[in-house]
Write the structure tokens for this entry.
Amino acid sequence: MSRQAALDQVEATSSVSSETLVRVEGCTKHFRRGSEEIRVLEKLDLEVPKGEFLALMGPSGSGKSTLLNLMGGLDRPTTGSITVAGERIDQLSRPKLAAWRARHVGFVFQFYNLLPVLNAERNIELPLLLTHLSRAERKKHVETALEIVGLSHRQKHYPGTLSGGEQQRVGIARGIVTDPTLLLADEPTGDLDRKTGDEILDLLQALNRDHGKTIIMVTHDPHAAARSTRTLYVNEGRLRAEPVE
């Protein structure tokens, strides 16, 4: 890690709260593939304080994206519990879990997942359609999100006319438009060149530092992980403080 990256981590850590926002206890996740049982996570424990920017690293197939999906309520553990903002999300019914996700979680994906037939502001508005906000209130939220990511001047543009970095900024704006409790990013710079990726990491750091967003990011890139306040490594379904050689 470079000296500047280390300083960035120290500065960012100062804003981390002592309050636990995410608690994963004794979590296992197994899948079945025909007659074979695939064991992805094994009795995993994790606590994420409010205001942390946590990076999860590990080889492909190690379980880091599975863990991210469990914390975002996109999947359920085989055993164990997951508590986010005081809510046992592993015990919620499907309708209640969907409503919980809409209120509390924003997602940022590697390949943006923008709808090509919708312009930037309409793509960003999508999560708000699951809320009870009026059209005027939704418009205000979208404008705020666009301003935060620096794309107010591109709100009417369609994904096909935006650069990769701009598309990811739209994706981040969509992720924060509901003012979520937790922002989950799965390889957010994986499809970008280094310069553009650095701009996206600058934005994520600003969301964490200046807006108090708790961020959990899956990445293969040590350069990206160095921007976080803490890095953990997933290997063979377990969390480790150091990478496995």
In short: The domain at 3-17+50-75+93-240 is CATH 3.40.50.300 (Rossmann fold). Residues 194-211 form the longest helix (18 residues). The two ends are 17 Å apart (CA to CA). The chain is about 35% helix and 25% strand.
